[in-house]
Amino acid sequence: MNSSYAVPAVALVVVATVLVGAFGLRISRTTSDFYVASRTVGPRLNAAAISGEYLSAASFLGIAGLVLVQGPDMLWYPVGYTAGYLVLLLFVAAPLRRSGAYTLPDFAEARLASQAVRRLAGAFVVGVGWLYLLPQLQGAGLTLQVLTGAPDSLGGVIVAVVVVATVAAGGMRSITFVQAFQYWLKLTALLVPALFLILAWQGDGAPSHAFEEPATFREQRVVRVGDSLDVKLDRPLTVTVDGTVDGRTHTDTALRLRAGTHHIDAGTRLTFAAGDPVPEADRRSDAGLSPSQAESRGERPLYATYGLILATFLGTMGLPHVVVRFYTSPHGVAARRTTVAVLGLIGAFYLLPPVYGALGRLYAPELTLTGDADAAVLLLPDRVIGGLGGDLLGALVAGGAFAAFLSTASGLTMAVAGVLTQDVLPSRGVRHFRLGTVIAMAVPLAASALVGGLPVADAVGLAFAVSASSFCPLLVLGIWWRRLTPPGAAAGMLVGGGSALVAVAATMAGFPGSGALHALLAWPALWSVPLGFLTMVLVSLATPGKVPAGTAAILARFHLPEELRTEVKA
Amino acid sequence: MSGFLAGLCVAILPLLAAGFWLGRRTARPENLGGLGTPVEHATFETLHTASLAAPPLRAGLTEETARKSARRLRTLLGTDALCLTDQERVLVWDGVGGHHRDEIMKRLAGPLETGRGEAFPLTCDALDCTVSWAVVAPLTVDDRVHGALVACAPRESAVLVRAAGEVARWVSVQLELADLDQSRTRLIEAEIKALRAQISPHFIFNSLAVIASFVRTDPERARELLLEFADFTRYSFRRHGDFTTLADELHAIDHYLALVRARFGDRLSVTLQIAPEVLPVTLPFLCLQPLVENAVKHGLEGKSDKCHIQITAQDAGAEALVVIEDDGAGMDPSVLHRILAGEVSPSGGIGLSNVDDRLRQVYGDDYGLVIETAVGAGMRITARLPKYQPGVH
């Protein structure tokens, strides 16, 4: 892919983000008019900001990649990512805003008046934040590698440095405007190329074949295999091989592969003829690297789908960078309106990645072999349209992808650094916030170098699972159940969230098991969320003496509209 | 496999960190055995037990605090049974012989009245009862008897009488401290009530005078100003709640400035730079308006030409940063220091020290005002407001 346009586009996004962050406030609200100055952030602007912060690398690159590799079952991802806000709207948005809490630990303290629960919630915020940052950095590395051929980790380092620099330097001051800008940038960066792609597809005679059929090469295609892998063939296939297949080295020889499994070494180039079916890649044999969750998904599709649905539906409310944005709403009703607008904006955005996935299956099917399926969105404009137009559209997509990494990563870093400075580091202050920022970013950066590449959307799914098992019980029971006690909340978070965290860590570390156990660990939400709820309820019922003293008043504040509250006080 | 191990390390890291933190939180100086002679060791043990018994009592003498401290106190005295009472009933009975509660309460009437200690034998029908003798030591705060500490033993012992007296005196000191804590809280509450909503009387006179001057020449303007005045006073005199939002406080400042502008005309200009994210922040009622009033006073004081005031509110993570800046006469930092220390009373208005005091009371000592000034160099006041603080809503 031609990088002469893409690199400036990425640089432009980075510079624009820094500039809008540093000067946006100055431009937007310097005035002598109080009416203008003291207008709160409206629901629509706030919703765009939330969406901008929320739509991460997983949404921008990951979904298209998964649809490309595994077909329409993966549409549950965009559905789940969106529907999480419906749950948030119904059960959490307004009471959370009325609680006055800025972060999740604040909420725990406001509801349960317990420093211990506050600290535990803080620990989980840090855990979820790190889990969520990891795929952002990996996605950035992948993007830069596809664009320029730079080493895998460079993109992650660039994103880390930019985010730490802007956050620690007190940039991102007018963060609402930056994030709202990022949403529209991301939408444009996907929408415009998508329109052109669809036009090109129409011009191509609108070829289509069912998703269930195996993908085929539409023209002669040379594929370079990045990591060694096994391919499974249903029928015999003739390919031209330059490299090592099944332990034997070939140089540009046509080789007839029999039906069955063949081992292809890293660096091998395979040339497929037009009309050949794309062989099914099987990465099980990769020692050390994380096995894709695809395997267990293939074996137990129903369990995996329900696990995904539960994690994404209930996990959104516990994402630290989403929660803090609700504080910007002036009152509970505005928080609800904001959530409705978020549903609309995110729903609109999620119509696009599946388009890329479907077109990718037609035009770039070899990505399933090379293991770079997440790069489909970046490669398609060049592949389908080509020429200068393709380069420009590719540059636009690359810029949008970087906007996705930057906005989500900076939001998460702020949230994690905030918790680290407030609850972990010894004293408060600006210097400690900077230190917190560095720690918040250094850990996932180190982890992304150590842990092998998990598909971006899958890795984000794991962060959702932990959030759903720890914060969903805390928020839902904290808001709707009077008998919740601090020991109950702590036990529920520890058991539910802790077990999910262990399962996630085992999956990411490439836990070598297989079969049922692996599926249980790879999709923990289905058992860990009920476990978290159950523990919280049972321990709370067992410690009835520890219900915080002001519970009735606190719940009244959560649920009464603000106007009524002042009357009650007066 | 190396990837697996590395990943495992990454996964375990947070768990280790959590464990370390938990360990540090729960660490107790248990390991004193290696230090010093047996006598010194015993002293350490005693002091340690006493220090563990103290915190609950600092919350006053109630059933719960008595329950929490009774076991430690019994360890301290080394008796079979220990009981804490208030004036009417037994709060807690720790150890054996709980059936003596009523008898003890009957015998306590005297000591609770006089405040003098007493020792007496117990009558008991139960054969297996090991306590037959009780020492009563009253707990007094400010010469008032709040309750009594009763230690029971199998036989008479002068040592126990003496020890019980000493422990009772120590408990009394803790209760006195609790009393002190309570009165300090009450004082703070009273202070907050007294501090809030004192708008300057000068401001009322001046505003009414300005409005009066417009009544003939520009009745429409006078009407508008009266409405501004009404809005501002309604906000200042409101009764409910000690807290307000930054948005409401800014509106009050707007009404205030409209009245001031009517008086000084073009001499005063104001610029605002407000991050909309921080408008919902909750803060103590009327704690920014005095700062603006102060800036207006200093900006126009002793200067015939124009004055510019800049009000900035920034979003800074978990805090909002409010800066109020004027280019007026400024102040000698040493004078300012004395005003803030309460040695000199400022001329009129609520004053900076009041705002400083209230911010410190609500948010803690880290959150006082930061004032940068010098003679002739204007003044810049920075207030940091946490977005969330328990109890502030």
TrEMBL record, chain A:
Its main location: membrane. Keywords: Cell membrane, Ion transport, Membrane, Sodium, Symport, Transmembrane, Transmembrane helix, Transport. It is a multi-pass membrane protein. The chain crosses the membrane at residues 6-25, 45-69, 75-96, 116-133, 153-171, 183-201, 303-327, 339-359, 392-421, 433-454, 460-481, 488-511, 517-539. InterPro entries: Na/Glc_symporter_sf, Na/solute_symporter, Na/solute_symporter_CS, Sodium:Solute_Symporter. Pfam families: SSF (PF00474). It is found in: Cell membrane. Residues 274-296 are annotated as: Disordered. Belongs to the sodium:solute symporter (SSF) (TC 2.A.21) family. This is Cation acetate symporter. It comes from Streptomyces justiciae.
